[in-house]
Amino acid sequence: MSSIARRAVSIPAATLSDAAWTEVVSCVRDAYARFNVEIVDTRPTRSGYVMALFGGTGSELGLGPDSKGIAPIDTSSCETVDDAVVFVFTRNLGDDAARACEVAAHEIAHVFSVDHQHLAADLSSYLPFSGRRTFQDVESACGETSERPCACGRATQNSVRVLLDRLGPTASADSAPPAVSITASAGSRGSQAVRVRVTDATGVGSVTLHYADDHGAVSSVCGDGTLECTRFAGDYTFTIPRTTGRAVYSAEAVDLAGNLAVTRPTESTPSSSVIPVELVQRDGHGVVTARGDITAATVFWTDDRGVTFRQDLCEEEAGQWSVDVQLAPRAGQRDLVVQTTDASNQINLTRLSRTIEALPY
Fold first, then answer.
1. Which CATH number do you get for residue 140?
2. What pLDDT shows up at residue 161?
């Protein structure tokens, strides 16, 4: 019996495809991989479990049209809510597997007294984030859009520590930290590009850059918006917009099992070299051209569905590299990042944006 639905209600089933449902289950398992808990999609035969129900819009429970999910939480003594039922309103999520996974992991954590953490990269957070959230082993304030005290009088919260206290650590044999390397080079217009390359057998949970120069210091988890960060495969490229003098930077990566790897602090002096890059739009296509003493060039771009593509530029003549990218068929904004490597092995990043008009057919 749900403590949220105190009367009999009918929740329309989720309309996720079999492939999408498999993705949801696998994704929630990854979110809880570092904790001693089993994620299954068949009802256990014994009591003592948390049930997540997927489907509906929340209106069945009297909730508003923008509801994504709901779960019980003990905000007075922070005890685990026994035999809890949480809800994930997939019909308000566009039956999107990644969003359904994130909401499910978020709501399940409430059962174990995890409050909303004011930390964008954390699965308990309401703050905007671009990328895959994970539970962060970081102390921070609680809150939705602004900071507030945490539940049960906690001054701050660390979602990982709360869940470890309730669930214990995983019995997994994975104790190997990710492999991490870091390089930096000149970006465009005086910026600095720092590339963090991460590989791990169980999957990467989060990547954080710590950077300081004469202008100031900043720390950013890839996706939290503090620094622009583009991701492709195992490469996480952070862009520092203004750099002054000698820079010191390091990175840390956490895998899905909670293993941490940290690079040694590295120093560099930003280069002032700039590679000219242009985008010429032609009937739904875009021709990207880079000119200079270049040894390699790649363009990354995202289409209207949020799918990221990568294409390498080809050297058409000495000092000129080009590629044709398919920007249509649907109208909308296209953001491209062009990464070039010059003869001195310096990496330059240039960001380009175009608005695509609907094509006549």
1. 3.40.390
2. 94
